[in-house]
């Protein structure tokens, strides 16, 4: 595997838009097109990337970097995973783990010590994946999602 993250450009846009998760997971993660619209609106904090294996796009990851998490606490600035979409047929090959590690490296490079993520709870959700990577529950929720954190120390 020759894995890397690649910026979304005019040349890679169609590959990004073609990323689709398994049909039974569509209720768990927004489609890439919504993520790219959000990245456009939140250009200062969104970090969208294609997950590439050689010349093949196998997934999409978007991080949020240095956002104020709660309006009532200006000191609560966080970075983390906003979206992780691994293409149907590509799961179980280490692409998700690679993407989380790559985002963690970017957060560390920017001086961060924690990586946050949210996920839908329940038996069909990705909690096992995130907990297997070392994320711990914060006890918080974001809307109807569970919040987890990975110490990068």
Automatic annotation (TrEMBL):
Domain N-acetyltransferase: 3-153
Coiled-coil residue windows: none
Signal peptide: none
Pfam families, per the entry: Acetyltransf_1
Family annotation (InterPro entries): Acyl_CoA_acyltransferase (IPR016181), GNAT_dom (IPR000182)
Name assigned to this protein: GNAT family N-acetyltransferase
